[in-house]
Write a structure and sequence with these properties.
The chain is mainly alpha-helical. The chain contains 37 helices and four strands. The radius of gyration is 30 Å and the shape is globular.
């Protein structure tokens, strides 16, 4: 193989056509060009290489423009500046240079009249991530525009470097409360080794919002070094700080926190603090924690009692089970309902005595005078799934309230065992028509044929192409119903579910063999509340990888989010765009609309998918064109 010096010597002798053929038409040649460009000492040769590369591929040329010697980069980056294209694409190309020479051009975009362009500019500066980029973003923090300030703090959090951390630590004392909030949030995303000292110091900040956000970050980072500071925060004058510190200690699971958390169960100023303390004690789960939770069962506030009951349900011990059973007689129906759920959550595997206790407790709850509690019992029995649970559900099929009866049928369908199927078959002969009809839907020999035709023709999109999955886009509630439905659920092989951070995945989803769970909010730009999380490029890359998995082993795909309109449709669009390939963006969007006519894809996700798939804005354009066509047709 020729040395770099030899290759550089050959560059002036190559015609444009020969240069293209040797370096720009194949991957191996591109790798060679990327390796030798930093060593090219003649500016004219470097400029010629970039000009030719930009003619072949704008993104490739932009990346190479930032690889030439630093003293040449101003001119190579200027080549990109002169390209006539949309502001968003030009910003993307400038970011690909990864060159400080692009930053002044990107800073100019921050004054653009369109907020989307300003946001793209800040993202691009953050993607470059150099010390110069940090300096520019720090200066943006002084902007009069609070939204731009928030974006700048967010971008600094994406950089994850010591200079970025230093800028954010300085921003903790910014005069604008919003900037301080964003700064402490962004610090929580940076390397823990850098962030820990700053977080511990922020726990004592004069701004209460900085303190409680620091407490949240301490819980996310974890580690015993966080505990002393959080224990001090439990005595903070601000109730929100105390509550967030309690939650953080629960995540860390440190036993030293138990005595103080027990004290907070009776916080004199805020029951919200007591709620978080109860949840934390349940997460820690020691004997001392259980003792504290037992005290909380006598709290005057029903929400605190309910939280204590739920926490005890996470502790699989006889003492906890007995305490939960006592709560079945609580004066508040919601506490009794949570007690039924807690019994269903107790892990009784391998403990026959505990199994008997749970069964006895649910039998008591099954006779509660309130239908809400009995409905919760039916749900809990469905999660337990044993033959004893099936027997309890059979008794609930006779309940006087239709909602309870129907939940019992659905729980039997969810269990799907031999005993449950026999119970459903017997339900076909019961006096209540709603029970007979619902039971038929869970029996393959009775209702499957009709149900399958409905599912295939009315819900799933009929797609052509061997690699494309049949797709169902739904809200999370609808998705759960489809999954537990025997006819619909049995054809599902894949599920992509998107929720807000911290929202647990419905247990029914585990019935689908291949799952991708993502957590972020339905946002299209950073907002004033840093706790609300934007989708990231990594989230979109996971969707693309999952799509390739489906392509290799085709099967029915379910995509869902809270409402089935924004995040889920953007994810579905990403799947179709990835599998259909370049130039088929409008076809991908048409397939999404066919599956979910009310689709309004999350634009941030669409832009990330556009970036990840290298579509140069065509995905977003496909959506905009359709909207324009509809508007014209309706005018």
């Amino acid at each position: 193989m020729n040395s770099a010096a030899t290759l550089i010597q050959q560059l002036p002798e190559l015609s444009d056509a020969e240069f293209n053929q040797k370096y720009l038409k194949q991957k191996q040649g591109m790798h060679k060009l990327a390796a030798i460009l930093p060593q090219v000492k003649q500016q004219s040769l470097a400029l010629r290489a970039i000009k030719l590369a930009l003619k072949v591929n704008l993104k490739l040329g932009s990346k190479l423009a930032g690889m030439v010697k630093p003293e040449f980069q101003l001119k190579t980056v200027n080549l990109i500046k002169k390209i006539k294209t949309s502001p968003q694409l030009k910003i993307q190309l400038l970011a690909l240079t990864n060159s400080d020479m692009a930053i002044p051009m990107l800073v100019k975009a921050l004054n653009h009249k369109e907020s989307a362009v300003r946001l793209h500019g800040i993202r691009a500066i953050g993607q470059i991530g150099s010390r110069v980029a940090v300096i520019e973003l720090t200066q943006v923090l002084e902007s009069a525009d609070s939204q731009v300030q928030a974006w700048a703090a967010w971008a600094l959090g994406e950089i994850d470097s010591k200079p970025a951390a230093a800028a954010l630590i300085e921003a903790l004392n910014h005069k604008a409360p919003g900037v301080r909030a964003w700064a402490v949030w962004a610090l929580g995303k940076i390397n823990p080794k850098i962030a820990v000292p700053a977080m511990l110091k922020a726990l004592k900040h004069e701004d209460a919002e900085v303190r409680w956000r620091a407490a949240v970050n301490c819980g996310k980072i974890g580690g015993s070094e966080m505990v002393p500071g959080l224990l001090c925060a439990l005595r903070d004058e601000n109730q929100l700080v105390r509550a967030r510190a309690a939650a953080a200690l629960g995540k860390i699971g440190d036993r030293d926190a138990v005595p103080r958390l027990v004290e907070l169960l009776h916080d004199p100023d805020s029951y919200a603090v007591s709620l978080r303390a109860a949840e934390a004690l349940g997460q820690i789960g020691t004997e001392t924690a259980v003792a504290g939770l037992l005290q909380a069962l006598n709290h005057q506030d029903s929400d605190v009692r309910g939280s204590a009951v739920s926490a005890l349900g996470e502790i699989s011990s006889e003492v906890a089970a007995v305490a939960v059973m006592r709560s079945l007689s609580d004066r508040d129906i919601f506490v009794r309902g949570r007690a039924a759920v807690a019994l269903g959550n107790i892990n009784t595997a391998g403990d026959a005595n505990l199994q008997k206790m749970v069964a006895a407790g649910l039998a008591i709850a099954r006779g509660d005078s309130e239908s809400y509690v009995r409905w919760r019992v039916a749900a809990a029995l469905g999660e337990i799934g044993t033959d004893e649970a099936v027997a309890g559900l059979v008794r609930l099929l006779e309940d006087e309230t239709s909602g309870v009866r129907q939940k019992a049928v659905k729980s039997l369908g969810q269990i799907g065992s031999t005993a449950a199927i026999l119970a459903l078959e017997a339900a076909l002969k019961r006096e209540f028509a709603d029970i007979r009809a619902l039971a038929a839907q869970y029996l393959p020999d009775v209702g499957a044929e009709v149900k399958t035709v409905y599912f295939e023709e009315e819900v799933a999109t009929d797609l052509s192409g061997e690699k494309l999955p049949k797709i169902l886009i739904a809200s999370e509630a609808e998705a759960s119903e489809y999954i537990i439905d025997r006819a619909a659920g049995r054809v599902l092989k894949y599920v992509i579910s998107i929720s807000s951070p911290g929202v647990p995945e419905p247990k029914t989803f585990h019935k689908v063999p291949n799952r991708l769970r993502l957590e972020f909010n339905d946002l299209e730009t950073p907002v004033d509340d840093p706790d609300r999380v934007l989708a990231t490029i990594d989230d979109v890359l996971q969707i693309i990888d999952f799509a390739r998995q489906i392509s290799a082993h085709p099967g029915q795909l379910l995509v869902c989010c809270r409402s089935g309109i924004s995040r889920s449709t953007a994810a579905a669009l990403t799947v179709f765009a990835a599998l259909l390939g370049r130039g088929k963006e409008r076809e991908a969007w048409a397939l999404v609309l066919a599956a979910r006519p009310q689709a309004r894809p999350n634009r941030w996700m669409v832009e990330l998918a556009d970036q990840a798939l290298g579509r140069n804005g065509k995905l977003a354009l496909a959506i905009e064109l359709t909207a324009t066509e509809v508007a014209i047709a309706n005018s």
